[in-house]
Amino acid sequence: MDDMAASPSVNLSSSYSYEDYRQTADWLLAQTEQRPKVAIICGSGLGGLADLLENKEVFPYKNIPHFPDSTVPGHAGQLVFGELKGRQCVCMQGRFHFYEGHSIYTVAYPVRVFFLLGVETLIVTNAAGGLNGSFKVGDIMLIKDHINMPGFAGQNPLRGHNDERFGTRFPAMSDAYDRELSALARRAAEEQGCGSFLQQGVYCMLGGPCFETIAECKALQLLGADAVGMSTVPEVLVARHCGLRVLGLSLITNMVVTDYTSEEKANHEEVLETTRLRAQDLQRLVSHFVAMI
Ligand code: HPA
Fold this sequence. Notes:
Number of strands: 9
Structural class: alpha/beta
Distance between the termini: 37 Å
Bound molecules: hypoxanthine
Strand content: 15-25%
CATH superfamily: Nucleoside phosphorylase domain
Number of helices: 8
Order of helices and strands: HEHEEEHEEHHEHEHEH
Number of domains: 1
Strand order of the largest sheet: 5-8-7-6-9
Helix content: 25-40%
């Protein structure tokens, strides 16, 4: 596995330089005195978490240098700094998705900015379809591991020149989701009355924007995936590369269709409806967890 020592001046397909990330981080550091150690990426319909912050300072993505804009209904498109249970946090109220047309590098862009801000822990939340037959709509799944399906096709945010200031060329991913943080989140869930609908499993990312065919769902089940979604993995790869600890939570918003006689169809309205029903529980779990870190 010899890295052919690509020079930074050779424009491989990575579209950002260290200076781009640095400029975004420095701009934010100049706008706020808050120095969060925890970053939270809010999934579809889960942006309400950011509304819970106290002493909020809000930066719409369109005002932040080098930040793209978020285009999906259910995603506000702003970075919110503030305190959750007395802990300084920064929340992405709306994330960037590959299916919106963003490059895989853009999708993960904010995570390196968080690293430069001094963030040490990343909490990622998402909406996902349940593949595991024992799951129910409304369950919250602690992400134990992931399958990076776009990565199988070469779409990896770490592809291209490796800047050692962020991390090593060949990062391990066998410990992508921090076991200590998972155990803590399990305790937080139990203490908040969420234990009865807490699950644990493997999240599989697909590129989207189509929901899966029946054959695809059956294939993902055979691969060992428990939930499927269209996000999260690029951000986690970049977070682990630069040494952030990661906690991942999927809200199971729908069960995927695996039966050719079924009339059911996955749809975004159902996803948002379930997030509305469970948003409060997830918010309580995450805020309690943040207080426990
Ligand atoms: N498939 C992919 N992504 C999703 C789903 C699903 O069923 N539900 C929520 N996000």
